UniProtKB/TrEMBL annotation:
Organism field: Scleromatobacter humisilvae
Protein name: Uncharacterized protein
Highest taxon listed in the record's lineage: Bacteria
Amino acid sequence: MSDRSISSPTPDGDALLAQADALHDEEPQKALKLLRALDIATVSTSRLQRLSFLLDHVLGEKFELWAEALAGQRALVRQAGADATPVTFRHAAIAAQVAGDTALARDWTQALAASSDAPLAKARALVSLGAVGFSVSRLGAESAGRLTLQALQPLAALHATPGNGLDAAFGAVTNNLASELLERPLDDLAQPDLRTALQLCAEHAQRFWERAGTWVNHERAHYLSAMAANALGRGADGVAQARAGLALLDQFDHDGNERVDRAFLELELAMGLRLAQLPGRADALARALALAAQFGKPWLDRWFAERNTRNEALARHYGR
């Protein structure tokens, strides 16, 4: 993003940001245009963190305009000043690292560590992992798996690091990476490095959320692990993870506020039972469908239908 486009006056930066945020996946070209028209000086301080993500996600990940994303991050960090958050520094450091500005990447990674009360090595690992997360969608299966495994190498030691600074961020980044990998084309799921990377991402996400998350984070980590296991054709593991997530809902969700989560967990339970050729699949699927019928929101209906369709494709892929 050029300094000229960043400073172009706009009537309301928050409004442009909200528009870009609402359509960045469905209409990335339009989101790019909106972000380029946005004057960072008119964006509320509380919204700068979201903008920092969109600069990397849209300009960098979707269009490989990392130099432009970096220019935007420079302006954003200046605008945020003392209010810059760890998330802001993380996305800025990622843009600098991918764009090849080692000095800025170093400075912002140090700022990330300091603002999070975390060791510098932990911040470096998070930035490197985040950079891979914004890159794997454009890579072939082998390259995506290999680069993810390289970025995951430091994480085993981090679980033993005192304090939980950045643990929630690691939980989110590894969750997103696993979600990206498990939705790859079916043939990609046979690639050994990608398979290992997917399994490890889900395992790391679960461990980081256990340290830093709420019971809802723990439950959703089980859901991620269930999806990952089923994507890899490991139905018994998918069953165990889905049942663990459902058990947490039984224990804590007394008012039924997480009925959507329950529907998706039941769907993965049904899938795991199908892959493992165990009884109970029809009942689990019936429970999932009954819950989904109560969503009442088109985007949720769409998401559930897409997940169900994907599971059907996985079942055929694994001969079940």
